[in-house]
Design a protein that fits this description.
The protein is mainly alpha-helical. The protein has helices at residues 2-13, 17-21, 25-51, 66-89, 96-118, 122-144, 148-153, 155-174. It has a single domain (23-174), classed as Ferritin. Helix 3 (25-51) packs antiparallel against helix 4 (66-89). The protein is elongated.
Length: 175
């Protein structure tokens, strides 16, 4: 009985309770849809590149199979949308910088696909993905000031882009 009361009071006192309940589901869906839309646009360039140019490139031994990229990116875009939702619904002020850097990293995310697959420019894509990595780190830092869960949710994204940066560099060097 005491444990149950403690858990209930702990749950109601947790600052992230409102986020866990997703009180504005339409906003959550909108945030996720925004991020998935960026991924969808980027995939239009990726699909054409993978089917032609990319398949002829020398790739490093640690290059994952092509089928893995779609599910991983879909999950990452969903997580990005959830993190944006957590920041929007957080009861903090001065979120403009966080919104701005989030938008910057989304645009850089899209342009990497255009540069690498659409324009077939791995060196320029590598330089751009370095900027993307920095913008993701900045997003995590700014989001952490507003909502720690929003920041933590973006760590898999930073890890995957770190791996993609190494892969991009290896492809450039091998070709």
């Amino acid at each position: 009985m005491v444990f149950k009361g403690y858990c209930q009071s702990l749950y109601t006192c947790t600052p992230y309770t409102a986020h866990m309940k997703f009180k504005k589901p339409w906003l959550l869906v909108g945030c996720i849809a925004l991020c998935l839309a960026v991924g969808l646009i980027g995939s239009l360039f990726t699909i054409t590149g993978v089917g032609s140019w990319y398949s002829h490139l020398a790739r490093p031994s640690f290059s994952p199979p092509n089928w893995l990229f779609g599910p991983v990116w879909t999950l990452l875009y969903i997580l990005m949308g959830i993190s944006l939702y957590l920041v929007i619904t957080a009861k903090k002020k001065n979120k403009q910088a966080a919104y701005y850097i989030f938008a910057v990293q989304l645009v850089l995310n899209l342009f990497w696909s255009i540069l690498f697959f659409g324009m077939e420019m791995p060196l320029l894509a590598f330089i751009e993905i370095l900027l993307l990595w920095v913008s993701i780190l900045a997003t995590i830092i700014l989001f952490s000031r507003i909502s720690r869960p929003a920041a933590w949710i973006n760590l898999p994204y930073l890890c995957w882009v770190s791996f993609a940066t190494l892969l991009n560099l290896a492809i450039y060097l091998l070709n």
